Amino acid sequence: PALFDRLDSAFPEYGWKWRGDHWTASSWPADFPFSVNHERPNRLMVYEDRPHWIKVHGHKGVRFLDLVNGGTKPVGADFPEAVRRLCDRAGVSFPEREISDKERERAERREARRSALEALSAYAREALKGERGAKARAYLDERGLSEEDREKLGIGFYASTKDARKYLEAEGVDAESAKEAAVLWEQLKGYVLFSWADPTGSPLTIYGRWPGPPPEGRPKTIALPGEGSKGSPLYFDRARKAGHKDLVAVEGVIDAAVAQSRGDSRVVAYVAATFSGLQVETLQRYRVRSVTVVPDPDGGGDRGALSSVDALTRAGIKAFVAPRLPVNPRNPKKNLDPDEFILEHGMDAWRDLVENAVPGSAYRAQRLLEDVTPDSTTQKRRDALEAILGLVDGLRGTEASLDAEDVLALASERTGYSGEAIAEQADSHAERREKEEREKQLQTALREAEAARTKGSSPFEIARELRRAMEEVQAGRKEPPEPYSSDRLEEAIKALPEGRGFPWKSPNLERAEVAFRPGELALVAARTSHGKTAFLVNLLAHWLENPVDEDEALVFFTAEEPPPAIHLRLLSLFSWKEAGAGSDLARGANTIRDYLRGPMRVENFNSTTIDAAKKKIRALESRLVVTYCAGWPADRIAQQAKQVAASRPVGAVLVDYLQKVAPPTGSFDRRDMEVTAIARAMKELSVDLSAPVIAGAQINRDSVPPNYRRNVDEAIEKEPKKGTRRQLVLAQIKTSRPALHTLREGGSEQEADLVLGLLNYAADYPKLGEYERGVLPFDVGALKNRHGENEVWDRLFFEGKCRLLRAPTYHEEGEDE
User: Fold this and answer.
1) Is this structure's pTM higher than 0.85?
2) Which of the residues 54, 77, 225, 587 could staple to 575 if both were Cys, CB 3.0 to 4.6 A apart?
3) How many CA atoms does the CB half-sphere of 759 hold within 13 Å?
4) Contacting residues for 138 by C-beta, under 8 A, at least 6 apart
């Protein structure tokens, strides 16, 4: 974004011109690294939503990062250098950081281990091709891994420690690094070696498999020692490189190798009875959507599949389990392993097997019901049903209801109970569990109250805690936290109401992505008389005329001015809009008040715009709720807003203003804690309603610079020329723009997602009527902005008579800039 803002000076050789919402080149650089038939500069554009590259229309484009690297993607040491060059052009600091000796030593050891592993893998691949690798090659051929497969997957053979040492020394691996990486481990001799990489493809460990039945005293499999050496599933790097978010997981190394060699790049191996915690964390970090487990067809595989399902589900990853693999036709006493199934039946049958996987919840239900039939004893069927209902009770996520339906259908089939009978039993089970949970909560609350009494807490504090506990119990059973699920959260994001952009044309704030979003608290901060109420009422008027939802209500809580005063402000705003810019027919609030109270004293008074404004508001008033809330606590405001939301959608809640709202119920030691509690209640309200909450907030009076007032007055008195005087005064007033740390009583900014600072030049221009017209700048700045840039300011203009905010006209743009 910093580069985008100053693209014309950062890359002057392109002659960039701003075209309203994007840059267009006016010259074609001689060294542009993208070949086209016709080098027309206007085909080179940079858009605000893709500020990192130059779009070449009719083609793809080139990243700025590649551009400063001679047209190629920078890797290794070239990458930070390319970033540094971009930083210089953008005028921002390169993020320099001195690493500690300990960090440097750790990084060097990690890099040395990787180099040793790479060298060992290269040695093993060569050794497999040699004379002593003949037995290993025959074994791999028998397991379905051809020479081409072995090369592609990096499979090798450890012939001898002596040969390995000689190869590693030739590759520059020193003895200390080789020892620390354990790559000269005598125990590896005779094993087929599989290279195991981390998600980025860098060496993680080496895994060994004895070629055939191992001799006495030697394990079938072996792995290099090292903490976290299996922290990523085997071949996850290959699946990730292929772009898969839905994986297939097997237990064995050769199972995965055969599947990968036959073209199923989704397949990874956990190489244990179940996924490890680190492996699940890795899948979660790289946003894997689902994993279909194909377990070995034995008791260990079944138990491991259940454990994997639980771990994946907790991490928010959808888990499926494939059907049990069939019997080996050449050994009826044993079922086929995944690699044997692929070699026996082919890849089409393998893909069909994976496609027929059941959700993890259904697999667990199958295990619970595996020896239950309609002919089982009544007690056995009822015990099984109780276990199933417990399983259903714990289902979470976006597909919980579908999973529950599948599980209960299976329960009906296995137990012989009808669907209706099971549904009734499920209701009874849920009620019983809820009652038990509430009783536990009450017992816990009573124990805590007794402990508080013993410690000498006041009766008031004990009663308050008991009341809180009772409210929680009355609100219903506490649900355990839902597992993280990208699908569920993305569906929730899609269901959110639309946010509201900044309502005035403001290139800087739009570029900083300033908006009022559902579920977020925005503060509008200014000194006294600097336009907090005016800004909020202008927002209200704009959103009344431009609704996101025609049925939405806009809720305005005012502790500053009563509803009749807000109505006068709206009438004045709409009269200006009806009259048009510069018209004498726009009416201020005082004039409208006099008009509404009786005949005007001014002869030939024209009420056209007032009458039009009244008509306009009457057409919109069904969507407007204005409540005088002076002295109300924050929780009462939230309660009334929720009452409105119970009957219709709420588009936004506006509160004028934060420091005039009383804190929610409770005791607070300091005023800043009260203000924080008020802001927190407003933030919670925005989340509960899925609507933006916008509240005014006070800025400290002492936030202005030293000698500020004197400097403004001197600029007015000493400069005779109107135009020059105006510029001098505006420049002085601009120095008093508020900052985030100047919020009065602090605390509220911690809860806010957006804090806008306001500077109304009219408030600090005391001799405006004597010297100037009644229109002055009104600056708005993003002091805090979770979704974009901070400390970004833009200019509006303030029509003093009508308290109206508007974007600058053409001749006003750039004033005092």
Assistant:
1) no
2) 587
3) 24
4) 211
